Amino acid sequence: MTQVWDGQQRRIELQEVGMRDGLQSEAQFVATEDKIALLNALSQCGLTRIEVTAFVSATAIPALKDAEIVMNEITRQPGVIYSALVPNLKGAQRAVAARANELNMVLSATESHNLSNLRMTQAQSFSALTAAGAYAKDAGVALNVSLSCAFGCPMEGEVDADTVMDWCRRIMDTPGVTGISLCDTTGMAYPGQVHALTRAFLAQWPASVLTLHFHNTRGMGLANILAAIDAGAYRFDTSLGGIGGCPYAPGASGNVCSEEVVHALQLMGYDCGVDLAALLTVARYLPDLIGHEVPSQLVKAGQRLDLHPLPAGFEEIKARALSR
Ligand code: COA
Ligand code: ZN
Fold first, then answer.
1. CA of 181 to the centre of ligand 2 (A)
2. pLDDT digits (tens, 9 = 90+) for 267-310
3. Is the minimum distance from the CB of 248 to ligand 1 under 6 angstroms?
4. Which pLDDT does position 122 carry in this prediction?
5. Rounded to 5 degrees, what are φ and ψ at 41?
6. 31 CA to middle of ligand 1, Å?
7. Nearest Cα to Cα of residue 221 among 249, 246, 188
8. pLDDT < 70: residue spans in the chain
9. Which ligand sits closest to the CA of 249?
10. So what's the pLDDT on residue 142?
11. Which residues are catalytic?
């Protein structure tokens, strides 16, 4: 019998971002055929959204230089939305040519991070967004915008909620834009802040256009997801194994971990539509492919009711205890 958090069985939608946010900062290049195999396995786990790769400059992100091949060669499951991150119109054109179902355009809530990450001012990025929006609309492809540093910037500090809401308004008013992700790029968000910003967003726009994207840099990822659910959000980016991080944001580390989130939310009575055992099997391939352990506690500990053998000499211990 599962426990119910708020008295209602509710559907939570997860977008798996490990193959993009996760792999983009890995030093060891994951072979193209291994990426494709991982994505094909992820497609079988019941996820409805998978961010496949990024159509960015290969100099900026060498780990994803094989974006076209990967996007073209994965085996697509019906009902799964395959998205790709893009920084500009050129990226949008490449992604559409490779048959991405959704574009994820990135823009920062702070000038310092926008310049560091994208080598453009926010104004330049915004005009790239306008161009990409018109292009996506014409191509009939959805366009989500990921607003980086929406909960704080590692170089500028606090980003106030009004600034974030102003960006949201400008973004949502851009023709072609179909959704927005509030991104906690370096794990600066905390539950009270998340609750307030989610409420402010949902007072203006429906939950169907909102995604939240948390990094677990300071251990608050899952708490932030719960705070956002409590405020009415239901879609989250999570990353297999908890890998991830923006190479152009100082101190960035892994996203909130997909299998940990599914495990916790299922126990709380939420339905993520995901086959947890299958997801965990895929996560266990990661350490070999990236050359180091992953942050996932579940990869190490297994699920809550995965049992361990009794200690050696248990019968003797028991017999002695009973004879006392
Ligand atoms: N895909 C591939 N190549 C691209 C590109 C894209 N989306 N956009 C630009 N380029 C190419 C240009 O054609 C140019 O190539 P050339 O030298 O052969 O002519 C080269 O990159 C430089 O173009 P420029 O516009 O001067 O780019 P830049 O060096 O200022 O970099 C970005 C701008 C946006 C392309 C780059 O910073 C980038 O890709 N950033 C992504 C960072 C990222 O993914 N961060 C993590 C995710 S949040
Ligand atoms: Zn991220």
1. 10
2. 999 999 999 999 999 999 999 999 999 999 999 999 999 999 99
3. yes
4. 98
5. -70, -40
6. 22
7. 188
8. 1-9
9. 1
10. 98
11. 246
Show the domains of the chain with their CATH numbers: 4-322 (3.20.20.70)
* pLDDT score at 3: 46
Cα diameter, the chain: 81
The secondary structure of 196-255 as a DSSP string is HHHHHHHTTS-GGGEEEEEB-TTS-HHHHHHHHHHTT--EEEEBGGG----TTSTT--PB
**What residues does the ion ligand 2 have nearby, CB within 5 Å?**
21
pLDDT attached to residue 8: 59
- Whether the CB of 108 sits within 6 Å of ligand 1: no
Please give the distance of CA 2 from its chain centroid, rounded to a whole number. 26
Q: Check residue 262 and give its pLDDT.
A: 98
Give the number of the atom of ligand 1 that is nearest the alpha carbon of residue 185. 48
pTM > 0.85: yes
Q: Alpha-carbon distance 217 to 17, whole Å?
A: 16
- Minimal-distance CA residue to ligand 1 atom 25: 119
**b/e per residue 167-200 (b: at least 16 CB within 10 A):** bbebbbebebbbbbbbbbbbbbbbbebbbebbee
CB distance 197 to 212 below 8 Å: no
Residue 91 Cβ inside 6 Å of ligand 1? The answer reads yes
Q: What residues are paired with 235 via a beta bridge?
A: 13
- Residue 263, C-beta contacts closer than 8 angstroms, at least 6 positions apart: 276, 298, 303, 304
